[in-house]
Amino acid sequence: MNVLEAIESRRSVKNFDPTHQMPETDVARLIELTKLAPSSFNMQNYRLVLVKDPALRKQVRAVAWDQAQITDASLLFILCADLNAHRKNPGRYWAHAPQPVQDILVPAMGAFYEGHPQLMRDEAMRSTALAGMTLMLAAQGLGYQSGPIVGFDPAAVAELIRLPEDHVISFIVVVGRGTVPAWPRGERLSDAEVVIEDRFA
Amino acid sequence: MNVLEAIESRRSVKNFDPTHQMPETDVARLIELTKLAPSSFNMQNYRLVLVKDPALRKQVRAVAWDQAQITDASLLFILCADLNAHRKNPGRYWAHAPQPVQDILVPAMGAFYEGHPQLMRDEAMRSTALAGMTLMLAAQGLGYQSGPIVGFDPAAVAELIRLPEDHVISFIVVVGRGTVPAWPRGERLSDAEVVIEDRFA
Q: What is the fold, at CATH topology level, of the domain defined by B3-194?
């Protein structure tokens, strides 16, 4: 599927075929493509919690406004991030680069994030969304439908998935075979509101 | 271009042809596609500041580690978000939906965000990144290259673009004709580290 067509046809689907099982090759391909999303300093701080256990799916649904897609979609990814990725053996993120580049970027990464907790959290949200958007468009390309979800209790989900103290949950992405088309797409705000030339008035 | 190929071929490019001028039809198409990214409650809280003024480009570059792509790329988008989008005539985001749906979702949106400043900020970062990833893949599909940038002084850029008090800057995306290929893609972390089945250990 053409990328422009994928962007145009992707919708946030809420109803999925609960009997559909995704072939493992497609699951692996989705993950491989998701990992090609860019991340700040290539630190790949996103973590993909793939919930397969049906009992755990039900528990997540119970703290997510009982949304049916949480249990019905073929795949449920809880997108999390490691807030301290910049501290965890950061040299490995640049092991592919020439040594002089490594010598600049690896210390710069630490200096950029360390002591800036809001920036670390912002980066967690950005990285997971870059990865999640890539995942949803990759799913579209593989013939699936998807949906992003923020309507859940993050503290309750954190407990269910034993989220480490230095990680944060961002949002959920479900992927599978949609059964009911999404509503007609909502009106887009005008360019006059969304696009600002040079500076705000 | 196939969407999977777009994801695989997209790289974060740093060197652009400063003489290239993008046709207005392509600029409009990029913006149209970017606006198809999903947002929580369809509130479209992202704002795209498109910096055209060369003098302003230079000023942004001066507070962005002097990165050449800030002035050289054909397009410079500063991705911002309105933290209070949920308050600003929110009925319009669901004007397309049946009345009973509107009656549920519009008040739910307010209840979800109001009084939760960290959640409002998280949503700003997520929405802008979903839009930014869509923009970068759309650019790829139109035959351009792109790059995301977080290396700048957000307070200084906010002043330059007269960012309103209730908005926040997320990151920058440049788009244009790349002149130097990106370095070979960095090593990806293993699935063993990035993909967690069901719950953390």
A: NADH Oxidase (3.40.109)
CB B42 within 8 Å of CB B93: yes
Structure confidence by residue, pLDDT tens digits, B20-33: 999 999 999 999 99
Looking only at the bridges linking them, the beta strands covering B46-50 and B75-82 are antiparallel
Provide the ipTM.
0.98
Burial A15-34 (b: 16+ CB within 10 A, else e): bbeeeeebeeebbebbbebb
Taking contacts as CB-CB distances below 8 angstroms, the residues of chain B near A92 are 187, 189
Facing residue for A48 by CB, picked from B49, B137, B194: B194
Kindly state the helix (H) or strand (E) to which residue B194 belongs, with its residue range. Answer: helix B191-194
| CB proximity B188 to A under 8 Å | yes
Pairing of strands A75-82, A167-176: antiparallel
Which residues 22-41 of B have a C-beta within 8 angstroms of A?
A: 31, 33, 35-38, 40
The verdict on a CB contact (< 8 Å) between A48 and B123 is: no
Q: What residues of chain A lie within 8 A of the CB of B101, using their CB?
A: 183
pLDDT digits (tens, 9 = 90+) for A31-78: 999 999 999 999 999 999 999 999 999 999 999 999 999 999 999 999
* pLDDT tens-digit series, residues B136-146: 999 999 999 99
- A184 inside 8 A of chain B by CB: yes
Beta-carbon contacts of A94 under 8 Å, excluding residues fewer than 6 positions away, are A41, A42, A101, A102, A105, A106, B186
Q: May I ask the CATH class of domain A3-181? A: alpha beta
Q: Does A53 touch chain B (CB under 8 A)?
A: yes
